[in-house]
């Protein structure tokens, strides 16, 4: 019997035959939909079927959580209440920042990237069949990379797999950062890298060194040059969707604040659709974490009763 299927059966209480059927269908078991990005355009989400997701969660516990994630990897960090805010906060007091973005990050990560790590780190003696099953459970064929297997945006295993795969690259980035400026900092939030320093000209040197290092790796990753941004005090610094002011304050930014205020006003007049109320409710919960001062101002401006009504809204 397959070692991996035996472990999955023990963890999920599903039969081996049931698990085999789920694995067979897993790569094609995703529902695809699009969500609107805050800055325009759409992001494609591929949500796995319930049965596939059950096996993915099991693999997280059985295998993936045993592997190291580098400290500079900020996304999906356990124990951090608001990782997007924490990521921005680490850069707020620096004079200069560089933002880099990977193109098609999740789909570019391949089964072999994680399988090679599991082979070296796992206490289980998996065979080729086990690794083939792991691939089918955690990866899907995607059109972005010519229908090769890649991680899906929307699968619960994709974040932790990507962080494990990126460990050596994260380690190299931190080393480059400290060699250029001991007081600098670098973080990676999924596909988004931010480097910050107080020394002029260091951002360009970091960019050159990291790009050269990426080209020397076996990873199928490349930077999206259109999204590369050199930022400094006096210019708009946006990090993981949050705006850092010249004084080092972190907020959602003026444009988003105005949009939220318009929606709260429409709600107070009874002019907001149920779907928009649910969306606003979720975003207000996010604002409570990342921009509590603005949330307090909304309470003062529109009344605590209005905000409480929105936060307790349930779609019937």
TrEMBL record:
One GO term of the biological process aspect: defense response to virus
Enzyme Commission identifier(s): 2.7.7.49
InterPro entries in alphabetical order: DNA/RNA_pol_sf, GrpII_Intron_Splice-Mob/Def, Reverse_transcriptase_msDNA, RT_dom
Keyword Cytoplasm included in the entry's annotation: no
GO molecular function: metal ion binding; RNA binding; RNA-directed DNA polymerase activity
Keyword Nucleotidyltransferase: yes
Annotated catalysed reactions: DNA(n) + a 2'-deoxyribonucleoside 5'-triphosphate = DNA(n+1) + diphosphate
Domain Reverse transcriptase: 16-244
Keywords for this protein: Antiviral defense, Magnesium, Metal-binding, Nucleotidyltransferase, RNA-directed DNA polymerase, Transferase
Pfam families: RVT_1
Catalytic EC class: transferase
Family statement drawn from the similarity comment of this UniProt entry: Belongs to the bacterial reverse transcriptase family.
Protein name: RNA-directed DNA polymerase
